[in-house]
């Protein structure tokens, strides 16, 4: 078991933290998707709750802004009957100079069972997972450019719901791959689940070096890259992580890498259009495509609740069942 899995799996190979998809066995990803599918209907019931995490305390620790991810984590926790605390970092003691570890110890003293962490620094959730008490689970809700594994799993759920299986699919990820934690986690998930081909479509300035070593095919020309694809995952330009000009202008970027109706016609006719949000209309995606019939962007948001319920309940039962 590699270093990453030695932290996130129990001795009997159950999930205990969810920090990255890299290296996780396919069986765990499939188990997450199967559980998530069974949770999809909870949102449609009169009483939108199951008692799986009753009595557990889940703390949302968001050191970076988020709307969708934080609220869907909160809803997921509430649907599992857990108590949820949303720590307002801007007004919390960390902004008064308290160290992160001291804040965590205080939350542990309040009997927290799980931390859901979003942080601007890559590796922050690993750091926290390495320092928490053995009964506490840590879930990465996005760290720097490194990983956003729950986003990848809700996207895999969306893809599986549309196509049933992964083996025949060609998937294109388009845009700011360099700064995108979503892209990295998607690539690990798609290759582990065994899709036919993963393509990344981006200008050279927005591609990490040696990206091919992750098992993807690189296209700088979007028109060529979209031919024959079943799934298109669009990404936002992550300006908050750019320390210079990576594209000449937003107009130029939209001309070359924006998804328009015209470009969408190059993909397979049944192709679905995805985006983790927030979308920037007219920068990476044409409005009519974002709102069009091939877009599944809002389905992704709904699926996020079920996928997060699955991951949270698996981590808690992994800790309860096994030796950590
Ligand atoms: C993504 C993120 O924060 O990494 N968004 C999200 O989780 N919904 C992608 C982005 O911000 O562009």
How would you describe this structure to a colleague?
- This protein has 324 residues and is an alpha/beta fold.
- It has two domains: 2-147 and 302-321, 3-Layer(aba) Sandwich (Rossmann fold), CATH 3.40.50.1370; 149-295, Rossmann fold, CATH 3.40.50.1370.
- Helix content is 38%, strand content 14%.
- The chain contains twelve helices and nine strands.
- It has helices at 3-8, 26-39, 68-79, 100-109, 124-131, 149-163, 181-193, 222-225, 250-257, 261-264, 287-290, 297-321; strands at residues 57-62, 83-87, 114-119, 137-143, 170-174, 197-201, 217-219, 231-234, 272-274.
- The strands form two sheets. A five-stranded parallel beta sheet has the order 7-6-5-8-9. It has a four-stranded parallel beta sheet with strand order 2-1-3-4, sandwiched between helices.
- Helix 3 (68-79) packs across helix 12.
- The chain is globular, with a radius of gyration of 19 Å.
- The two termini are 14 Å apart.
- The relative contact order is 0.17.
- The model has no long low-confidence stretch (mean pLDDT 94).
- Bound molecules: N-carbamoyl-L-aspartate (NCD).
- N-carbamoyl-L-aspartate binds at residues 68-69, 142, 148, 151, 181-182, 236, 238, 276-277.
Work out the strand percent: 5-15%
Number of helices: 12
CATH architecture of the largest domain: 3-Layer(aba) Sandwich
CATH fold descriptor of the largest domain: Rossmann fold
Which homologous superfamily in CATH is the superfamily of the largest domain?
Aspartate/ornithine carbamoyltransferase
Mean pLDDT: 94
What is the oligomer described by this structure? Answer: single chain
Q: Low-confidence segments, ≥5 residues, pLDDT <50? A: none
């Amino acid at each position: 078991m590699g270093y990453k899995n030695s932290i996130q799996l129990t001795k009997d190979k159950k999930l205990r933290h969810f920090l990255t998809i890299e290296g996780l066995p396919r069986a765990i990803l499939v188990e997450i998707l199967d559980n998530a599918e069974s949770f999809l209907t909870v949102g449609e019931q009169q009483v939108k709750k199951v008692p799986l995490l009753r009595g557990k305390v889940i703390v949302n620790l968001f050191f970076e802004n988020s709307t969708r991810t934080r609220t869907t984590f909160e809803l997921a926790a509430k649907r599992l009957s857990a108590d949820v605390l949303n720590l307002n970092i801007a007004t919390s003691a960390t902004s008064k100079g308290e160290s992160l570890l001291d804040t965590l110890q205080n939350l542990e003293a309040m009997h927290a069972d799980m931390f859901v962490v979003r942080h601007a620094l890559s590796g922050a959730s690993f750091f926290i997972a390495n320092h928490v008490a053995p009964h506490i689970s840590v879930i990465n809700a996005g760290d720097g450019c490194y990983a956003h594994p729950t986003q990848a799993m809700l996207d895999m759920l969306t893809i599986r719901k549309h196509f049933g299986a992964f083996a025949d699919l060609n998937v294109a990820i388009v845009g700011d791959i360099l700064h995108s934690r979503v892209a990295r986690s998607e690539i690990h998930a798609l290759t582990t689940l065994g899709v036919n081909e993963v393509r990344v479509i981006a200008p050279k300035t927005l591609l990490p070096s040696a990206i091919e070593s992750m098992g993807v095919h690189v296209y700088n020309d979007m028109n060529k890259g979209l031919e024959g694809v079943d799934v298109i995952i669009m990404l936002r330009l992550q300006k908050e992580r750019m320390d210079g000009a990576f594209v000449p202008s937003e107009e130029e970027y939209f001309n070359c890498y924006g998804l328009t109706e015209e470009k969408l016609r190059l993909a397979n006719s049944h192709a679905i259009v995805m985006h983790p949000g927030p979308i920037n209309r007219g920068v990476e995606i044409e409005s009519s495509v974002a709102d069009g019939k091939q877009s599944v962007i809002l389905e992704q948001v709904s699926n996020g609740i079920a996928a997060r319920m699955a991951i949270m309940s698996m981590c808690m039962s992994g800790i309860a069942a096994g030796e950590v």
